[in-house]
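quick one
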Amino acid sequence: MTEPRKLVIAIDGPAGAGKSTIASRLARKLGYVNLESGAMYRALALKAIMNDISFDDADALLLLAEKSKIELQPQIDGNRVLLDTEDVSRRIRERDVTEAASRVSVHPAVRAWMVARQRDMGVNGGVIMEGRDIGTVVFPNADLKVFLDADPTVRAERRIEQVQAKDPAAAKALVDDLKRRDQRDATRTASPLAPAADAIVLDSSKLGIDDVMARITELIAERTAAAAHE
Ligand code: DC
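structure w/ 2'-deoxycytidine-5'-monophosphate:
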């Protein structure tokens, strides 16, 4: 018997909806690789910070991207991110880089560069790619597209818990950051955050991780069966 074809699974949605947790669990379960496309935008944003390049200068950012080596190495608990061979996995999660990533990602030229790289990574299937435009732009023919959403208040609470922001000022700053990022990611002209027409929208506000996993596992089983008949 031939091996079943390995699928391409797109998981899109806003920050804090649970994409990374779900994607890495699914990857482990299926033996797929989990690729966080956001980490690539974050790595470029970090390089812009290090080189004092304006987040508004699309030409300079593209040049910078072309000179950069951004690698995602899937690990059991997320992606190890290398920028020009340096491990920046932790640094790119910091607040300044988070904000900068949302700003550099508005530029169509930067996005085109990222999309080309992301497509190369998924060419052989067996990939769960998470981001904002995976189902709409990067893999419009993905076998399964999930748009994972959640109420903004719930997403903010999850972030506060994740980074263990204890004092109210830090928590408020997190909520403000999230709102600003949501607004920018969803209203930019180039590939704004939106579900693909054929995406399955799951609202995780009232669902636990196990519920979301169960629903997506069902969907994967359906798609795997469909792929076997192709
Ligand atoms: O998923 P994340 O929080 O690591 O993403 C960081 C930023 O990168 C986010 O604010 C928007 C941008 N991004 C994007 O525009 N397209 C993607 N596919 C992934 C992330």
